[in-house]
Amino acid sequence: MERIDGKALAAKVKAQVAAEVEALRGQGVVPKLTVILVGEDPASQVYVGGKAKDCAQCGIDSEVLRLPDSTTEAQLLAEIAVRNSDPTVSGLLVQLPLPRHINEKKVIEAISPEKDVDGFTPVNVGRLVIGEDCFLPCTPAGCIELLKATGEPLEGKRAVVLGRSNIVGKPMALLLLRENATVTVCHSRTRDLPSVVREADILVAAIGKKRFVTPDMVKEGALVVDVGINRGEDGKLYGDVDEPGLADKAGRITPVPGGVGLMTRAMLMVNTLKAAKRQHGLD
Length: 283
Ligand SMILES: Nc1nc2c(c(=O)[nH]1)N[C@@H](CN(C=O)c1ccc(C(=O)N[C@@H](CCC(=O)O)C(=O)O)cc1)CN2
What we know:
Elements (H helix, E strand, L loop, with lengths): L1 E2 L2 H21 L5 E7 L3 H17 L2 E7 L5 H12 L6 E4 L9 H7 L11 H8 L8 H12 L8 E5 L6 H10 L3 E5 L6 H5 L4 E4 L17 E4 L3 E2 L5 E2 L13 E2 L6 H20 L4
Parallel strand pairs: 1-11, 2-3, 2-4, 5-6, 5-7, 7-8, 8-11
Antiparallel strand pairs: 9-10
Helix pairs in contact: 1-9, 2-9, 6-7, 6-9
The protein binds the ligand Nc1nc2c(c(=O)[nH]1)N[C@@H](CN(C=O)c1ccc(C(=O)N[C@@H](CCC(=O)O)C(=O)O)cc1)CN2.
Pfam family, one: THF_DHG_CYH_C
Keywords: Amino-acid biosynthesis, Histidine biosynthesis, Hydrolase, Methionine biosynthesis, Multifunctional enzyme, NADP, One-carbon metabolism, Oxidoreductase, Purine biosynthesis
GO molecular function: methenyltetrahydrofolate cyclohydrolase activity; methylenetetrahydrofolate dehydrogenase (NADP+) activity
């Protein structure tokens, strides 16, 4: 299978954002992203660092608020309220996962929909469902950009999404539907899952299980998007798809690392720029 180059596409998207941000700054508008991180989760520390680096590359101001694991839900909600009403903050997100004593749903719902650059609030999810302009969740939006970059039409294709999370599986299905693909969502209760997956012209694997998708489950010529980030016992990163096993198959696949993760980061920059433009009546 041919690899789809997420690194190159992410660099191109970020360069476009950087050019637009420079023009905005010329008009006196300075986009800013605030990221709130609660606790010491090592992977989250890395992802938040990556977001600040991307902002610097794009000319976007950034603030990372690091709160201790002992932070209460009320304290976190108070910090969100401060940023919601701060006109210098264009985009606001809370890094997930949160410590167990904090209710994730309550926290997400507290973020102003106009600053919700993750696209996780019920208002933005609802807008996505009914096809209104909204902030698209970054991972599914990045997957769509990767698929479009192949130049293959998505319309009329059979798409299978493996996984039904609120952050990836469900919005991914909606975005594929918007591209006029015929979409099936598979999950842990799907009967004869391999035979359903084998039907896919477009397969999005977001099930969170290392190399769950084996070569016998993939149609010849399929476009495969691997959303999985699974850390193996050897310390290496593995996708949800057995990419080496697909070497002799026709088709295209996004690698892990170097695929969806990088586009997730790039789409956050797109959303932060969009938030800044909207807040200044420029979108
Ligand atoms: N508030 C949010 N929390 C989380 C999100 C999110 O979109 N918003 N998604 C993930 C974590 N995440 C971004 O936050 C993220 C994960 C992975 C990558 C990435 O670049 N992956 C690289 C590999 C990186 C590595 O070596 O570890 C790749 O796939 O090439 C970026 C962002 C959960 N939380």
